[in-house]
Description:
The protein is of the alpha/beta class.
Amino acid sequence: MGLTGGIATxxxxxxxxxxQLGAFVIDADRVAREVVSKGSPVLKEIEKxxxxxxxxxxxxxxxxxxxxxxxxxxxxxxxxNSITHxxxxxxxxxxxxxxxxxxxxxxAALLIESGSHKRFKEIIVVYAPFEVQLKRLMERDKxxxxxxxxxxxxxxxxxEKKKYAxxxxxxxxxxxxxxxxxxxxxxxxxx
Length: 191
């Protein structure tokens, strides 16, 4: 099953709630960090196309520099995705095959944008309205409103993502309300 949401919608919170209940959760962000680790073939490809500036002196990816490049350049963002996504999907598939749970969830922010959602019969979208996303992102990352809006707009609009959902978890009304929805959904998967 795929799980997605927009930045600052609470996707990671929901993912951890499912994990606490017993689901096997594969975090695509963690997998993405793994596939671009120091010396990896994917990191070498990134350096080839984005230059030495995106590599730190210790040989690791300079995420901040890369983010600055792709945040305002759609073509470069798509190029980066074309380099990283095949390796991420391959690693996720390996982890799915190793899983020992009857509920396996792949948690991925760009699940729909990458086309990866097509691999799943069911999609959970974690939802919070744009203004809630904006407020959370500004507080969490100490961003200006302008930067937060720009960052949110690099992803598919959350209202558009909802159209792909089999299930929607509304995370705009507090943790306990969210936990209740997660628990109810988890229980439906156990029957």
